[in-house]
Amino acid sequence: MKQGVVKQGTAEAEVKGGRSAVVAVAAATFSVVTSEMLPVGLLTPIGSGLGVPAGTAGLTMTVPGLVAAVAAPAVTAAVGRLDRRWVLVGLMALLAVANLLSALATHIAVLVGLRVLVGVCIGGVWAIAAGLAVRLVPQRSVGPATSLIFSGIAVASVLGVPAGTLAGGLGGWRAAFAAMGVVCLAVTAALALLLPPLPAERAVRAGEVAGLLRLPGVRAGLLVVVLIVAGHFAGYTFVRPVLERASGAGAGLISGLLLAYGVAGVAGNFLAGSAAARNPRRTLLVIAVALAAVLPAMSVPAGGAVAAGALIVVWGLAYGGVSVSTQGLLTAAAPGSREAASALFVSAFNAAIALGALLGGRAADAVSLPAALWLGGLLVAGALVVLVMPAAAARRSRAAAADLP
Q1: Do residues 151 and 247 lie in contact, with contact meaning Cβ atoms separated by under 8 Å?
Q2: Which residue of 51, 91, 110, 372 shows the fewest CB atoms closer than 10 Å?
Q3: Which helix (H) or strand (E) holds 6?
Q4: Major facilitator superfamily (MFS) profile domain: from which residue to which, for each copy (predicted)?
Q5: Is the pLDDT score of 280 beyond 50?
Q6: Which of these, 162, 182, 44, 175, lies nearest to 103 by C-alpha position?
Q7: Structural domain total, the chain
């Protein structure tokens, strides 16, 4: 592995680690998001094992999302000038412990408490990792390296659920948490071995993160993130019981359908990444239209496994591109504040996960599972309105300018 040179503050710093370090960071982002997503495909067995309804079991999704939303800016500010390598190693070790102990939980309150620790790790790792590529590879490779780091998030978002469902089907939901704990331990070791020293370039102030909210483009971008992600998770948190209802399938076929979703999501990530590099807003419009249509369609138990499979593939293709496209939208809105913008993005994304899971849970418990899917579709439709408004305003401005004498 060749070494490169990048700017670090006003001094030149030799880059060590290169691509192998980037891969380790991508593995860390994959691990935290997979840990967050893990309960989605396991809600039925978790609820049965701990004697709680699906809506209550859904708290294992809601709580870490809420905590991560607060932890992203808080951890970024709290670590001050600590070496980022050891911050990441410590957070990953904590994540491993939380997952391993979750496998032993005998009460829902204990499991939810451990998910609080998961939330701290999600927010801290994601926010810090997002801006590390520039410090790990030569300048010419920063773009691809950043994409690789974010691919860990995108791939986890679409593969974490089927992987957890498969592990749960083979050994039970406790085995799934234990397996994830072992993966996190391996990633902890990889970070310690492969990352170079990463002293803080400067401390990020909490006020800097909040200051970005004064930018109209940032506010609009965050609203799009919240609406799309919350809409998705209002339905997707309950994807297993929804698929059981729609297809009448057993655990084996459900795992296959979720795997198809994951493969489609990975494809959607790379397709959207290419398109979003040119026009993130247009890419998100296509994604939002697809999600707004497929979520309500999943509520109709017609067509059996074939129809459910077709819809879940479209769902995966669409949602697979959400993280890379929304990140592109926010980066374009605040290009000069990389780490602060990343913390704000992570905060909004995880708050939306928690909000979606909470709203979907209330709709599922109070009305029905289809109600959660329809609610999700309505939220995504709201994102469509936000995305269309700037384009419509620009067209009106151009028309008004053309009418001027």
Answers
A1: no
A2: 51
A3: strand 4-8
A4: 20-394
A5: yes
A6: 175
A7: 1
Taking the alpha carbons at both ends of the chain, their separation in whole angstroms is 63
Tokens for 344?
């704000």
The enclosing domain of 283 has a CATH number of 1.20.1250.20
The DSSP annotation for 364-389 comes to HHHT-HHHHHHHHHHHHHHHHHHHHH
- Asked if the structure places residue 10 within a domain, the reply is no
Q: Does residue 239 sit within a domain?
A: yes
Residue that wins the pLDDT comparison between 139 and 123: 123
Q: Distance between CA 379 and CA 182 in Å, rounded?
A: 36
- pLDDT tens readout for residues 203-246: 566 676 778 888 888 889 999 999 999 999 999 888 878 787 76
Question: CA-CA distance, 321 to 268, in Å (whole number)?
Answer: 5
